[in-house]
Every structure is written in C-alpha cells, then in structure tokens.
Amino acid sequence: MSAEATNPGAPLRKRGRPRIDLRRLGRVALLGPVSRDRLPDAIGHVAEAHRAHYPDADLAILRKAYVLAETSHRGQMRKSGEPYITHPLAVTLILAELGAETTTLTASLLHDTVEDTEVTLDQVRDEFGDEVCYLVDGVTKLEKVDYGAAAEPETFRKMLVATGNDVRVMSIKLADRLHNMRTLGVMRPEKQARIAKVTRDVLIPLAERLGVQALKTELEDLVFAILHPDEYERTQALITSWSGAQDPLTDIADSVRATLRDAGISAEVLIRPRHFVSVHRVRIKRGEMRGTDFGRLLVLVGEDADCYAVLGELHTCFTPVISEFKDFIAAPKFNLYQSLHTAVVGPEGAVAEVLIRTHRMHKVAEAGVVALGNPYTQDGTTAAHQAEPADGERADPTRPGWLSRLLDWQEAATDSDQFWATLRADLAQDREITVFRTDGGTLGLPAGASCVDAAYAQYADEAHGCIGARVNGRLATLSTVLNDGDTVQLLLAQDASSGPSPEWLDHARTPAARIAISAWLDAHPDGAQGPHKSRPDAPRPQAQPADDPSGSRGRPAGRAPTVAVDTPGAPVRLAGCCTPVPPDGIVGFTVRGGSVTVHREECPAVARMRAIGRAAVGARWNAPDDRSDTPDYRVTLVAESFGRPRLLADLTEAIATAEAAIVSATVEPPSEQRVRHTYTLQLPDAAGLPGLMRAMRDVPGVYDVSRAQQPAATA
Fold first, then answer.
1. Tens of pLDDT along 570-628?
2. Cα torsion angle, 252, 257, 262, 267, sign
3. How many angstroms from the chain centroid is the CA of residue 147?
4. Is pTM, for the whole model, over 0.85?
5. Burial class (CB in 10 A: 0-12, 13-18, 19+), 453
6. How far apart are CA 189 and CA 630, in angstroms?
7. What does pLDDT average to over the chain?
8. Residues marked as catalytic
9. Which of 317, 358, 591, 608 is exposed most, by the fewest CB atoms within 10 A?
C-alpha cells in the first residue's frame, strides 16, 4: 500500500482473490448511487493539459482508466483527509503538464490500483493492454509481508529493471514521489525525514540523470525544507527580502531584447527565478548575494544556429564573463540536456547569467525523457530491444549508458543491503566522462574513474587479470584517473586464475568494479598466483647487476648445441642478437676471419645482411650425440613489465622453476612506468623454451616476453 493510502478496517489482501467485474464497476462509477459531484472536473484538468501537448489525443482511454481508478479507490482516504483518487489524479496531471503521452497518463491513473485495491494485473492487461500493464507493474511496490526490511530496496531494484525496458516506469515513480512530498506534512517528523532522505539519495539523482529538471528542482526544495528547516527558512527570508526590490535582471532583459531585435534575431527572453536550493548554493558560494543572483535570463530561439547567433551578439554588445561560458549544445550532458551557458555584464555593472536554447531544447531540459514521448517504435518493438551498437551504448536515448551499466552491476549485488548502499553511492556521482577504446568503441564512466573502472566496464570479470593499461598511447598504472576523451587500452594477463589486489578497491569508482573485486577477494581469501599481487600504483624495481644472487639459480652451463654449415671447416658461432636454439629456422653469414655467424631466420640482422648483398650460408642443426654431457641451449629473452616490489625475484624464481640457468640478467632503468628485463639463459632442452616463456608471462606485472631481436647488453 502506498505510504499515504489508508482504508480503516479493510482486510489484508489475499492471494488468489476473485476477479472483479470491471464493467459493473464502470456502470457504478457512472450511474451508481455515490455522488460524484466532489470531483466534477478531475479528469478535465488532465485532458486540458494533455491536449496542450497532443491536440489530437484520444481521451477515451483516459476516461476509462479514471473510472476504474475512482471506483477501485472509492472509500480509501489519504492521511490528509482527501479521497485517495486525488493522488493518482495529481500524479497524472504532473505528467500531463510535462508532456507525457497517453499511455503514460493511463498507467499513472492506475498506478496504485494493483497495490492498494482488488484490481489485478491481468485485469489491467485485459482492459488496457500490455504496455499499460507493464508500467503499472513496474511501479507497484513489493509487499513487506514477503520481503520484510528488504522490501524498499528490492522495490527500487524492480523499478530500475523495469525502467531498463521502458523509461516511463521511472517517470511515473518520480511524479508519484513529488505529489507525496508535497503532502508529506501530515506525517510524523521521523517518517518525513526517512522519506526525504530516500528522495534525496535516490530519486533526485534519478530525476537528474533522466533530465526531468522540473521534477528534480521541486523535489530538491521539498527535501531541503524537511531535512534543513533552519537553512530553508533563512533562504526563504532572503528571497522575500529581495522580492520587493527592483529586479536588476529586468533592465538587463530589456537590453538583451533590444540587442537581439536590432540584430534581426527572433527570440523570447525570460527571467527564470532560481529555486530555493539554487539560491542556497549561490549564497554558500558567494557569501553576499547580488540582485542578479536570484534568477537567470533564458533566451529561447527556433534553431540551433540561432543559439550561436544570440551568443555572438551578447558577447559583442555586452562584456562577457568568459569563465562562465559552457557549450552543452556541441557536447550535451549525459541526461540529454542542451544549452549554451554564459554570463554578461549589464549596463549598471550587474552580472547576469544567461541560458540560450531552442524551444525543443527547453522542453527536453524541463521534462527530460518524458518529453521524448513513447519509446515504442512504429512497428511495436521497443527501442531498448533493438540491436545495440558495437560500443555497448544503447542507441535509444531513453536507455542511456549509465542506466545500462546500473542494470549490469545490480545483477551482481545479490544482497539487498549491498544493492541499496551501492545504488546510493552510484547515483551520488553526478558527472560522466567518455573514454575511447582502441577498437573504436567508447566507455561511459563517472568522473574520477580510473583504469580499474575502465577494465571492468569493458571486460567484466575478465578484468581480474588486468595488469596495466595504455592511456593515450602511454603506459599507465591501473590507478591512473581517466579524463574525458582519453583513449585507453587495457592489458590482460594470460593466466586465467589471476585476480585483483585489495588495493584496487581504493581506485574503483564504479559499482561494477567494486562489486566484482569484492566478490573475487571474498572467494579467494588467500589470494592466487596472478596480477593481484601487484599493486596498481606500486613503485618500480631498480636495475640490478647481472651477478645479483637472484640471478645465479640453475645448474652450471654445459656445451652449446652444434650447427653444420655449408662452408666446410669454418668456425661457427651462434649470434648473440637472436640466440637461436633448435628447432628455430637458421641461416649463416660469413664474417671477418672466415667464421660463420648463425642467426634465426626472422632476426632483423638477416634482412640487413641481405639488403647489402651479403651471401647467406646454409645452416642446420646437428642431431645431439649420445654423450652424457648433452648440450645446453642458450637463449636471450626480453620481459616487458610494470614495476612493482619483488618483481625481479618472482621472475628469477619462474626461470629457476623451469630448470633454466641465468647466464646474465640486466634490468634497464624504468621508463614511463615500464621496466625491461633482458635475460640470457641456458636450457637443458630447447623444447622447454615455450613453457619457460609462458611461466615468465604469468608473473604478476609482466605483460610480454619475447626472444631478443637485437644485440643483448651482456651477450
């Protein structure tokens, strides 16, 4: 039952209740004994507001929905003493004034019937169709009898999931909460505070993200009055004290009108008073209020190009405050908002803020997604069900990227308390950035998001194995905070068992990342072998000499493998630049003194030799003989990694485990958070080289291991 619906003495609703004869109820509503003089123009006000936006709207279904709502709620009273039907009517009128289409208004009239009366969802579907039924079900609360303390968070989860398929669900909920907040004074102070806090933490941010500024600003003022009564009264007194004085914005508005008229630009110039919370914020920011701080100028024009024409005239004929200029037309906010913001100095030196937008932009700025009308396409399929673009963002503006991400992470938040706390934290982040992926896609992230957040946004649970990133082509740690427009490439480890470090939580802003990291850590209390050992912001190891004790593991060097060349009797040596080992394809070149140096076929030196006309000498591996001192194979490997403590020790341990001996090791000075290790190793068996390279790549922080392609520093 809705917070303000009361029906004294009514029995609790039972499941499996009998169906109601809707036709009989309709006849009673129209012809029955109960006088209906109390609300003679009730549906008329809604119809008038609706026709202002939709002149050709068919009002028959609204009348039908009103009849059902009035008869089913008959006898129920609000705590204010009014008939309960006044609530769905008020909610519907709010939406009608915002420009909601007929289906939304129909569902709004019926939004409490399934929750508070004997009407069932099946009956709503039979009488009004699937769309209306879906919307009514979406805003119907879950019963405390079934969910207990989890009823409220789980109800919001249900609404959000429904909103993911049809944003009109949340539109009805926001209007419902606004009317309840308007009449909250009849409740106990503690209940007022509880409802106001949920409104502040959840519904106001949702209204902001959906762009419904008309609802958001009024909700803010109502919450302000309840949670901060002293500040509210102080702000109210401040506004009252200025209301009788000559408004300096009036003179500036006249000057702006004259300027635009002389320039031949058709525009409507209005003065928009600030709401209470906005005045309060300005007072906190500036201290002493000026007369122009209590409102802003709004300039409405016909076309986008006219917006920039107005801006040019204002900046030419008035002194602009450049720091106040923002272009939300070229770069709209994530909640569909578009406007040019600027500030100019008026004739008497007063500074006035100016908003410039088209009439269409203004409608969207006030009503947000409500102004978009019906999200269903002409063929009957919802835009939310259409194919999604490659970057994962929905093409349908009524299903913005932030909502898709919210729906994704809520599935992982199985605990109601975790969902509730995470939802509030997510909605508290009120600015969004866009970063680009190297495959051409984009990621929408909250401002302040790091590479950790980007990894989980792109790869979900696969991001557990992320070991670093490139931001705008430069190597970066996972803790790097991303900026709007950055290009990010995430680097993943090969080891499927890799997992995150607890320190990653310090750098995760998005719920998806925090929930996934926490779940992995809970499931692996002892950690695992993988990148989770590496802190995303850990210091880099310093270069160590080749005779460091950590590089002396492995068994003593034996003899090298033998190679036969097509120059009989010539001394043969293996090139140190590429350190070939069987079964590498090899080729030789004669050098000074008649010796033949053997390279891997893909060695860059081979291409250089052939480019200058040097003749190649055929070469092939000799089969090992049966002597006990079988050959040891020397190879030089280069490991690319991100710096962290104990990295060198972990690498040498991996090498020793593969039974390789370190002949020499060099760690170059760190560059751009990258560390390059060069190892010359001896293997007892060339067949073990692929396994050795895999083991080195699996070391946390290492993102690549390759064969040396140039002269080794210690070869």
1. 888 888 777 788 888 899 988 876 788 888 888 888 888 888 888 899 999 887 654 44
2. positive
3. 29
4. no
5. buried
6. 88
7. 79
8. 115-116
9. 608
